[in-house]
């Protein structure tokens, strides 16, 4: 029987806006039992919860700083104590810093938060929920880890971001194998690797040759379908897979010339500006629930 989100419990990190909100909307359209949104922005959480009301799905919101292990543990404990073992866990929260050479980056402002949020946070979140997901054999489970094409190819001016996504991909696929080899294949992991998505995070970035910037709804639709089918990887658009394959077979010096002069990968971040980042206090509010 094909996996369905109908009557499932869905938890989404970074769920108050952007692609996180689109995942929530998709889950509600497909009649999820409940959707839990974690985000660091309390105002965006309230706005999104209000917009998602009235559709028959219970929406839970909680202010969580996923870069802080104590925040993650407290929030996860609340979910589990409330008998809400996720059927679908979407590790969507992420940040990007770019347009600087590595030696011009700031370790505290750039490196630490990027690695904590993009790479370490999905590990912490998944670790808190995975034993319960394994133990609940009532239905198949899904974990969607949102990585990036940057985790498959080196790219100047985004070394720390690329490192965080390389780490995420390696960890995500390793856990997938552990689940399969340990007889816990009812929990399936999908690693999603899109090129630049027009959420504002990559404002100013240019798509490489034959690699258009992806609209958020297109990216979410492709990730969602891969997650439902339990597909281990989804690289999109198709040129991401092509570039990955060429890099694997060509000598490094040849690939560098092709990536730079033909595909324009290495100049894609030259005009990156990104969006301004708002810093929110590291606090955790009690979960707020609305009937949607």
From TrEMBL:
Family statement: Belongs to the short-chain dehydrogenases/reductases (SDR) family.
Segments crossing the lipid bilayer: none
SUPFAM superfamilies the record matches: NAD(P)-binding Rossmann-fold domains
Pfam family, one: adh_short
Coiled-coil region: none
Molecular function in Gene Ontology: oxidoreductase activity, acting on the CH-OH group of donors, NAD or NADP as acceptor
Xref: InterPro entries: NAD(P)-bd_dom_sf, Sc_DH/Rdtase_CS, SDR_fam
Gene3D superfamilies in alphabetical order: NAD(P)-binding Rossmann-like Domain
Oxidoreductase recorded as keyword: yes
Protein name: SDR family NAD(P)-dependent oxidoreductase
Keyword match Calcium: no
Cross-referenced PANTHER family: PKSB, RETINOL DEHYDROGENASE 10
Keywords: Oxidoreductase
């Amino acid at each position: 029987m094909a996996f369905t989100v109908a009557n499932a419990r869905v938890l989404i990190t970074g769920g108050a806006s952007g692609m996180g909100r689109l995942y929530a909307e998709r889950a509600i359209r497909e009649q999820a039992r409940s959707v839990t949104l974690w985000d660091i922005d309390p105002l965006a959480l309230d706005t999104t919860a209000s917009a998602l009301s009235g559709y028959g799905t219970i929406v839970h919101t909680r202010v969580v700083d996923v870069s802080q292990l104590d925040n993650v543990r407290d929030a996860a404990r609340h979910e589990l104590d409330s008998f809400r073992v996720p059927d679908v866990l979407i590790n969507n929260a992420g940040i990007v810093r770019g347009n600087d050479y590595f030696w011009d980056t700031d370790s505290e402002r750039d490196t630490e938060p990027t690695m904590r949020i993009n790479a370490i946070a999905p590990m912490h979140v998944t670790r808190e929920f995975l034993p319960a997901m394994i133990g609940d054999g009532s239905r198949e489970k899904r974990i969607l880890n949102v990585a990036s094409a940057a985790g498959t190819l080196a790219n100047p001016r985004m070394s720390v971001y690329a490192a965080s996504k390389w780490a995420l991909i390696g960890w995500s696929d390793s856990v997938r194998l552990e689940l399969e080899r340990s007889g816990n294949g009812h929990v399936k992991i999908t690693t999603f690797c899109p090129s630049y998505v027009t959420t504002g995070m990559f404002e100013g970035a240019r798509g490489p040759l034959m690699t258009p910037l992806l609209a958020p709804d297109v990216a979410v639709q492709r990730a969602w379908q891969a997650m439902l089918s339990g597909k281990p990887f989804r690289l999109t658009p198709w040129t991401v897979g092509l570039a990955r394959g060429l890099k694997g077979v060509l000598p490094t010096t040849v690939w560098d010339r092709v990536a730079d002069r033909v595909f324009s990968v290495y100049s894609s971040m030259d005009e990156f500006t990104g969006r301004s980042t708002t810093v929110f206090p590291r606090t955790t509010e009690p979960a707020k629930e609305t009937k949607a």
